[in-house]
Amino acid sequence: MPACAFIALGANLGDVPATVAWAMDQIAMLPSTQLIKRSSLYRSAPIEASGPDFINAVVEVSTDLEPLTLLRKLQAIEDLAGRERPYRNAPRTLDLDLLMVDQVSLATPELTLPHPRMMQRAFVLVPLAEIAPLRVTPAELHAVQCQEIRRLA
Length: 153
Known about the structure:
- The chain is α+β, with helices and mostly antiparallel strands and 153 residues long.
- The protein is built from 4 helices and 8 strands; from the N terminus they run βαβββαβββααβ.
- The model has no long low-confidence stretch (mean pLDDT 93).
């Protein structure tokens, strides 16, 4: 039975809106995976990072892929987009974070689910609330309200 997964997308280098749209299309083409919903695009300032503002979004997928397999497929999409990791929180052409997969709780060196910092980030919670309002509480949104985020489209 397919699992419901949520993936955060972000980028702040290059033609960012085009890259995020391309990444959504790449996710939709993953094997045994169907794109269910995509959020609007949002602009947000970097958190614990430098560089230009980020463009962020969240997608919901239905997938038969195991979480670690899905993570590796997302990392391959990042690589295709020219993602480099010169240092922690470096500006990036594309960042894909697996936020949650159904009710899976996982803690390995490679993957932690749900994503350990998602509840601290408006750039995740606001687009997630747009496409899956029952997954984000008003209190969780209130906790990140001081982080500037603006809906683009």
